[in-house]
Amino acid sequence: AQKVTQAQTEISVVEKEDVTLDCVYETRDTTYYLFWYKQPPSGELVFLIRRNSFDEQNEISGRYSWNFQKSTSSFNFTITASQVVDSAVYFCALKDSNYQLIWGAGTKLIIKP
Amino acid sequence: EAGVTQSPTHLIKTRGQQATLRCSPISGHTSVYWYQQALGLGLQFLLWYDEGEERNRGNFPPRFSGRQFPNYSSELNVNALELEDSALYLCASSSGTGLSETQYFGPGTRLLVL
Known about the structure:
The structure holds 2 protein chains of 2 kinds. By secondary structure, chain A is mostly beta strands. In chain A, 0% of the residues lie in helices and 53% in strands.
């Protein structure tokens, strides 16, 4: 069965620190997609990144980077030099042959000034 | 390009009443998804519509229903409201049903049942 685990319920760091949010997934499929979304206090889910199972290249977008490792079924998200505006709940999700998004429980990230 | 829009932003109802929530997808998107997010909890999949048809349904009672109109907008109806239906209801849209399709979300409707 498919499953997404975000073991960190809440992370609190001081501004400018680097922080990594973990995401571990389970699927029997060889073709699947992984997603990260950000949910700020306003509530709207903001799409951050999509990665397919055949592309294990790491991705960097400004202060954000993603590390995809099939060997450990992980798709971790790192924020470098965190800012207060990064405070939000971050969700990792998996989509495989069931064509439904399987969501992790989310990690609440608190960036203190 | 306008994103996914939802109305109303807030809705207050009393137990037993009916609630109707509306969603307009991104222009060109044919699939609409509904999710429930109760306070402090994760996202629970409710319904998926594509090209006017219901494609899949989450583990919710039949009093949660909806439809998709010819212009691809969608409506979620919740009958016989219960206190535990209080939640943020999020709508998302995608341009197709493929595995690679990304869902883009609206701002949500906050439903409070008193």
